[in-house]
Amino acid sequence: MDGAGLRPERVDDDDLVPFARAVNRHFYDSEADDDVLPWVESLSTGSRAWWTRVDGRVAGNLGVIETTVSLPGGGDVPLAAVTAVGVAQTMRRRGVMAGLMAACLEEAVARGEPLAGLFASEAAIYGRFGFGVAAPHVGYRVDRSRVRFPEPVDVHLVEESTPEQAPASWPELHDRVRSERPASVAKHPGQWLLGITRDPPGWRGGASARRLVEIPGRGYASYRVKEHFDGLLPAGSVRLLELVATDPEAEAALWQHVLDLDLTTTVEVSYRPVDDALPHLVADRHALRVTESSPLYLRILDVPRILASRTYRGRGTAVLEVMDPAGYAQGRWRLEVEEAGASCIPTDAPATVGLPAQSLPGIVFGGIRATSLAAARRLEERRSGAAAELDHLMAVDRAPWTTMEF
Ligand SMILES: CC(C)(COP(=O)(O)OP(=O)(O)OC[C@H]1O[C@@H](n2cnc3c(N)ncnc32)[C@H](O)[C@@H]1OP(=O)(O)O)[C@@H](O)C(=O)NCCC(=O)NCCS
User: Which of 50, 141, 213, 214 would bridge with 8, disulfide CB 3.0–4.6 Å?
Assistant: First the structure.
C-alpha cells in the first residue's frame, strides 16, 4: 500500500499503551510491560502523540513533548520536542513519517510554538523538514589510567543521592545551568521520571542500575557501570549519563568522582558542550578521545519571534532570505539590532545572505558560524563580508548545550 492518503490521527490518552508498544517495536526494543509502562507514565502529562494506522495496525508513530528551550542571552520560548518517530519496517519509504511530521508541525504553529526540536537517529532524515543542527555536542571516551587532575580536587564533596531525594533539587540545578546556555531544552517532569525515578532492568543494557551522586545545591551526575574482567584484571566501563555543575569546584569534583571509580578502565559520555571544561581539567587531554555525539536539531517555525527575542552582543543589520518549501520560515527578513533591542520584519530590501531553513537554527543559536555554512555552500553571501558580519552579530557567550537526549 502507498503511504499517500494515509492520515495521521491524534492518539487518545487511553491508547498510550499501544502507542508506546508500537514505538518500541519500531525501534526494535522490548514491548514488555516493565519496559513500556514507565514510558507511558512519562507521556501522560504535557505531551501529544500521533499515529497512522492501516487495517488496525500501527504503521507509524510520533510524539511531542511540550517543553521550552533557552534563547541566546536568556529566556525560554515554547518548544515542540519531537520524539518517538518510527515507522513499521513493512511501511517504510511511503510517506508515513512525512505525514506525521507535517501534522505535528502544523499543530505546533497553531499552538504558537515558534520552534520544534529533535535528536536524530540519522542526520540525513530531517533537513527536508527544515530541522538543522542548533547545538553541536561532543562525546568522550576516556582511558581512566591516563587521567590525572593537576589541581587538587576535593572529591569528598560528592555524596550519594537516591531516586527519592534527587527530584527535590536536581531540576533547579539543571535550570540554573540551562539559563547560561542557548539551545538548552528544559526537562519535562516525565523526563525526570525516566532519568531518575524509573530504571527497569530492560533499560540498562546489561549495566548496573543508575547511580546518582550530587554535591548538594551545586551539581549532580548519573551513570551506570558495566562490570567486565579481562582475565583477572578488572576492566569495567562507566557510561556517564549526565553531569551538571553550577561552579568550577563542583564540576571538577564530579568529574573526578566519575573518572575514579574502582574496577573500571573506561568512561564514556555523550551530549557534552563543545566548550566543555573536561579537556582543561585533566593533565593529559590526549587521554580523552573525542567522539561523535548527537546534536540538538531545531526547526524555526516563527522567524520574527525568535530573531527579535534573542539578545545580541554586536549591533548591525542583516537581511536574510530564507528558503523553506513548507512555508513556515519562508521570506526575506530584515534583522535590525540596536542598543534598545532587536527587531525582525519582512522586507523587500535586497538580501545580504540567502539560506535554506535548515541552516538557520545553527546561526541563530550560535552553534554554527555563518562563515562555515558559506564555505560549505549552505548559505549564500549576497553581499561580500555578510557571513562574517552575521558571525559577529550572532556570537554567544557559552556554547549551546542540551544535557540529555529526549
Ligand atoms: C526514519 C523513518 C521514521 C522514516 O520513515 P518513513 O515513513 O520511511 O519516511 P518517509 O517515507 O515519510 O520519508 C520522507 C522522506 O525522508 C526520506 N528518508 C526517510 N528515511 C530516511 C533515512 N533513514 N535517511 C535519509 N532519508 C530518509 C525519504 O526518502 C523521503 O524523502 P523524499 O521526501 O525526498 O521522498 C523510518 O525509516 C524508521 O522508523 N526507522 C527506524 C527508527 C528511526 O530511525 N526513527 C527515527 C528516530 S529519530
Answer: 50
**Block residue for cell numbers 514488555:** 32
Which of 6, 52, 97 best tests ligand 1's pocket when mutated (most atoms within 8 Å of CB)? 97
Closest to 207 measured CA to CA, from 189, 185, 227 = 227
Tell which residue, 278, 192, 297, 283, has the closest CA to residue 240: 278
* Helix-helix angle 16-26:33-43, to 10 degrees: 120
Asked if 400 and 366 touch (Cβ cutoff 8 Å), the reply is yes
CATH superfamily of domain region 9-118:
Gcn5-related N-acetyltransferase (GNAT) (3.40.630.30)
> Residue 5: what pLDDT?
59
pLDDT confidence band for 228 (50 / 70 / 90): very high
- Give the model's pLDDT for residue 4: 52
76-87 and 115-118 beta bridge pairing: parallel
What residue ranges do the domains of the chain occupy? 9-118, 137-294, 302-394
Distance 66 CA to ligand 1 centre (A): 23
**Residues in a beta bridge with 230:** 233
Q: Render pLDDT for 198-226 as a digit per residue (tens, 0 to 9).
A: 999 999 999 999 999 999 999 999 999 99
378: which 3 cell numbers?
549552505
Superfamily of domain 137-294: Gcn5-related N-acetyltransferase (GNAT) (3.40.630.30)
> Atom 28 in ligand 1: which residue has the minimum CA distance?
93
Q: How confident is the model at residue 313 (pLDDT cuts 50, 70, 90)?
A: confident
Q: Which letter, b or e, does each residue of 101-137 get, where b requires 16 or more Cβ atoms within 10 Å of its Cβ?
A: bebbbebbbeeebbbbbbbbeeeeebbebbbbbbbbb
25, pLDDT greater than 60: yes
Statement: 302-394 belongs to CATH 3.30.1050.10: yes
Q: Quick check: 2 pLDDT over 80?
A: no
Return the beta strands (E) in 283-340 as ranges: 288-300, 316-323, 331-338
Distance 23 CA to ligand 1 centre (A): 15
